[in-house]
TrEMBL record:
<dbReference type="InterPro" id="IPR000653">
    <property type="entry name" value="DegT/StrS_aminotransferase"/>
</dbReference>
<dbReference type="InterPro" id="IPR015422">
    <property type="entry name" value="PyrdxlP-dep_Trfase_small"/>
</dbReference>
<dbReference type="Pfam" id="PF01041">
    <property type="entry name" value="DegT_DnrJ_EryC1"/>
</dbReference>
<dbReference type="InterPro" id="IPR015421">
    <property type="entry name" value="PyrdxlP-dep_Trfase_major"/>
</dbReference>
<dbReference type="InterPro" id="IPR015424">
    <property type="entry name" value="PyrdxlP-dep_Trfase"/>
</dbReference>
<comment type="similarity">
    <text>Belongs to the DegT/DnrJ/EryC1 family.</text>
</comment>
<keyword id="KW-0663">Pyridoxal phosphate</keyword>
<feature type="active site" description="Proton acceptor">
    <location>
        <position position="182"/>
    </location>
</feature>
<dbReference type="InterPro" id="IPR020026">
    <property type="entry name" value="PseC"/>
</dbReference>
<feature type="modified residue" description="N6-(pyridoxal phosphate)lysine">
    <location>
        <position position="182"/>
    </location>
</feature>
<dbReference type="GO" id="GO:0030170">
    <property type="term" value="F:pyridoxal phosphate binding"/>
</dbReference>
<dbReference type="GO" id="GO:0000271">
    <property type="term" value="P:polysaccharide biosynthetic process"/>
</dbReference>
<protein>
    <submittedName>
        <fullName>UDP-4-amino-4, 6-dideoxy-N-acetyl-beta-L-altrosamine transaminase</fullName>
    </submittedName>
</protein>
<dbReference type="GO" id="GO:0008483">
    <property type="term" value="F:transaminase activity"/>
</dbReference>
């Protein structure tokens, strides 16, 4: 079976982890800070706070931004549920804006019509590794005095207008995930990047129970926080992986080129599109069937032929939990068309030309039946 995603771990990664296992610190040691500094430097941001996973990173960012019960956050339905779940967890209301039909990112032209006096933040997701139109979103946020939090969990290694995603040039904070199918992995893990010192200090506090040292060096809890810490073991792996990130992205770009060569002229499916100002990290490769009724049949056919596929994503508002909690009647036109036709094909660094050729042949074979 060709999985839809897979990590790449080599001897240098293993060696760095073993060094930590043989050291004095497995957690709360020097590797955490080293990883944070390396990540911030790579992205061009002032500060990075590493944490347990991408979901924890979202929660930390929402808390640091001061989002509270009753606040509204404009976001996309085309994302993993965690983006909206952590808003719900703090009592805020996710307000879903439809997606663009070309990039499947939030439609920045529609954001304005969802802004109310309760709106506090815009949380856009760089779907599949391609940046949203951040200049336009920044202009809207500035006019209405809104916070911008980039869910960039798909996008480490990507660029927008020549700037690394995560630089926070157009946002207040940016979120990353280091799950094994992402650009780099720490096993599980996440991070929040920012250029704002106040947010940085809040993130550090909320990450570790809200506990600080007082003037006498005594640990005192000054606010409600959580244990969202990441280990030195994970960060050692992250530091090693980060050194290979640009190579990983180039290899993903190569896979995408192969898909375009195999399927670019095939009218039964729709290939993903990248805007000229973007350099996608290609976290995932999502095609669409031209006809809705073909999607599920094609999925089964591919799986029967040993090709792992997935769906990214069903609309967040379509999940039973959301249907039962205030989103029963929401239907967004572009999202509905997208999430009934999308299929995620394998995309990771170890794929070879012959693998993509085989996938292309199987897809063409299906439509000849």
């Amino acid at each position: 079976m060709l999985p839809y995603g897979k990590q790449y771990i080599d001897k240098s990664d293993i060696s760095e982890v073993v060094k930590v296992l043989q050291s004095d610190f497995l957690t709360q040691g020097p590797k955490v800070k080293e990883f944070e500094e390396s990540l911030a430097k790579y992205c061009g941001a002032k500060y990075a706070v590493a944490c347990a996973n991408g979901t924890a990173a979202l929660h930390l960012a929402y808390l640091a931004a001061g989002i509270k019960k009753g606040d509204e956050a404009i976001t996309t339905p085309n994302t993993f549920a965690a983006t909206a779940n952590m808003l719900m967890a703090i009592g805020a209301k996710p307000v879903f804006c439809d997606i663009r039909s070309d990039t499947y990112n939030i439609d920045e032209e529609n954001i304005k019509k969802f802004i109310t006096k309760r709106t506090k933040v815009i949380v856009q997701v760089h779907f599949a590794g391609q940046s949203c139109e951040m200049k336009k979103i920044k202009k809207i946020a500035k006019k209405h005095k809104l916070i911008i939090i980039e869910d960039a969990c798909h996008a480490l290694g990507g660029k927008y207008e020549g700037e690394k995603i995560g630089s926070c040039k157009y946002s207040d904070m940016a979120i990353f995930s280091f799950h094994p199918v992402k650009s780099i992995t720490t096993g599980e893990g996440g991070a929040v990047l920012t250029n704002n010192k106040k947010y940085y200090e809040k993130l550090l506090s909320f990450r570790s129970h809200g506990i600080h040292k007082d003037k006498n060096g005594k640990n005192v809890m000054v606010e409600l926080g959580y244990n969202y810490r990441i280990t030195d073991i994970q960060c050692a792996l992250g530091i090693s992986q980060l050194k290979k990130l640009d190579k990983f992205i180039k290899e993903r770009q190569r896979v995408v080129k192969w898909y375009e060569e195999e399927l670019g002229d095939f009218k039964k499916i729709i290939l993903p599109n990248v805007l000229p100002e973007n350099y996608s990290s290609w976290h995932i490769y999502v095609i669409r069937t031209a006809k809705k009724n073909d999607r599920d049949k094609l999925k089964k056919y591919l799986q029967d032929k040993g090709i792992g596929v997935n769906f990214h994503y069903p609309a967040v508002y379509s999940h039973p939990y959301y249907r039962n909690n205030g989103y029963k009647n929401i239907r967004l036109k572009n999202m509905e068309e997208y999430h009934t036709t999308c299929i995620t094909l394998p995309c990771y660094t170890q794929l070879e030309r012959k693998d993509i050729k085989y996938i292309g042949e199987v897809i063409r074979e299906f439509f000849k039946k």
